[in-house]
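Quiz preparation item.
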């Protein structure tokens, strides 16, 4: 599928913008790694509450044989951020202050406190956010609390909310649009059957999130996972689909259902990293699936794939990607090769941390999707930075799904379905040779109103989703071109 192509750099007022052909992922900015706007230390997760408003989770590191031993965790908020601006104060030891750059000693702890209650911030690797600005941290104190903070323009604030999850170390965490909270144990074992727990949210009645001295609810749904290690979870906005990173197995598992009625495995979904998906160019380690994020429109799962916890001296920087995956089947829609981009811009894998348009030190662990702008945010652990990327072009192209890689017997453009449609329809086609494929939509006057595909595709059978919500009702034509082949069909949009 399409890759990040060579870009041209333009520098304006200390902000670097990246321009390329349309239908490409580009860098909006990366936070400077310095005492003005940097996270201050090794950055493990990012949670986004709105455009350019996010919180970074810092974990200064843990022994390689125990990721959950006491570590110097803290969180840093950003409000209306760009590369050089936006960092707001965070709570540290009960006071709202600005983090000390570099995070020296106990002074960098950002523990949870409310009235006389206190929970040590330790062994946390991932966060999630909801649209109201609440930040949920998967903490690993003795009760393995989900700690809740809130991001405002004045800084990261304490809240009265937390939820004890039990005795198991937790890693991945997510919140759906209705406020249900999903958390996954780091380790799956045969002696337990509740590795994923789903809790009612802050806004639901009859919960103990804010009950002083009794922050414990039974989960309303649980999921049994196979033995292994899990480092990411995401859900669709309506909570009907759950995706979890089976990191030790290098794959993603999918479950379907609801918080109210429970979940079952979806065996039609399959995402498994190939043995060929490995590190080269002097790097070391085995890349696997880590953090996940979900986009409802267009539908895709964003999956971080990287070599976990490998620093530069261990050859960890030459690999780091974000795969965009079709949530129905698990096929790859797009690939953002972050490490390759870093080398292309800077000339190596360990430069660029204060350029504003490149993170350098590729060490991805987590990703989040901001739906208002349709932007992806991720972090670079050893780069001490957060990166914002956006899609320049028609987002409909992200709806391409490869149904089969088998070479078809002929070039075919199928009739869209449903037809008539309102406002979404699916277009299926087959191409016999690898090459440039274009799929355009025209109105009755012959004016092009959308480009769904303009990419290099291998031979195979595909489908693409077209959203006509921004167009008036009427007759439209869609035309497929691949090499010397061309076909046109009619479709009807009714509203």
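Solution:
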């Amino acid at each position: 599928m399409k890759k990040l192509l060579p870009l041209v750099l333009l520098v304006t007022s200390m902000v670097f913008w990246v321009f390329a052909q349309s239908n490409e992922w580009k860098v909006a900015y990366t936070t400077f790694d310095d005492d003005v706007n940097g996270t201050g230390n090794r950055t493990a997760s990012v949670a986004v509450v709105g455009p350019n408003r996010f919180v970074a989770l810092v974990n200064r590191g843990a022994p390689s044989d125990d990721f959950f031993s006491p570590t110097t965790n803290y969180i840093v908020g950003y409000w209306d951020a760009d590369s050089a601006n936006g960092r707001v104060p965070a709570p540290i030891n009960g006071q709202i202050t600005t983090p000390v750059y570099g995070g020296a000693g106990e002074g960098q702890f950002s523990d949870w406190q409310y009235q006389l209650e206190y929970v040590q911030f330790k062994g946390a690797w991932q966060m999630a956010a909801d649209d109201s600005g609440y930040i949920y941290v998967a903490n690993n104190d003795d009760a393995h609390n989900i700690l809740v903070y809130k991001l405002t323009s004045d800084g990261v604030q304490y809240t009265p909310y937390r939820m004890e999850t039990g005795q198991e170390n937790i890693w991945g965490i997510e919140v759906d649009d209705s406020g249900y909270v999903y958390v996954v144990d780091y380790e799956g074992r045969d002696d337990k059957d509740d590795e994923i727990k789903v809790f009612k949210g802050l806004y639901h009645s009859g919960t103990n999130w804010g009950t002083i001295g009794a922050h414990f609810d039974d989960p309303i749904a649980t999921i049994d996972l196979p033995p292994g290690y899990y480092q990411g979870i995401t859900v669709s906005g309506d909570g009907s689909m759950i995706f979890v990173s089976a990191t030790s197995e290098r794959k993603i598992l999918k479950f379907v259902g609801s918080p109210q009625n429970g979940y079952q495995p979806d065996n039609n979904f399959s995402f498994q990293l190939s043995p060929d998906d490995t590190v080269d160019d002097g790097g070391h380690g085995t890349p696997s699936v880590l953090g996940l994020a979900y986009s409802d429109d267009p539908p895709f799962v964003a999956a971080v794939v990287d070599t976990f916890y490998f620093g530069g001296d261990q050859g960890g920087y030459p690999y780091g990607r974000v795969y965009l995956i079709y949530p129905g089947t698990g096929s790859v829609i797009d690939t953002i090769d972050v490490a390759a981009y870093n080398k292309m811009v800077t000339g190596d894998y360990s430069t660029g941390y204060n350029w504003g348009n490149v993170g350098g030190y590729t060490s991805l662990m987590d990703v989040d999707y901001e739906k208002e702008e349709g932007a992806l945010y991720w972090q670079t652990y050893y780069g001490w930075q957060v990166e914002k990327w956006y899609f320049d072009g028609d987002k409909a192209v992200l709806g391409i799904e490869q149904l089969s890689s088998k070479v078809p017997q002929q070039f075919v453009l199928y009739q869209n379905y449903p037809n008539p449609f309102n406002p979404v329809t699916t277009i299926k086609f087959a191409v016999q040779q690898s090459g440039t494929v274009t799929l355009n939509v025209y109105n009755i006057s012959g004016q092009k109103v959308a480009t769904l595909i303009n990419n290099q595709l291998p031979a195979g059978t595909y489908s693409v989703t077209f959203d006509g919500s921004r167009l008036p009702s009427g007759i439209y034509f869609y035309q497929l071109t691949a090499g010397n082949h061309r076909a046109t069909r009619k479709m009807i949009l009714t509203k």
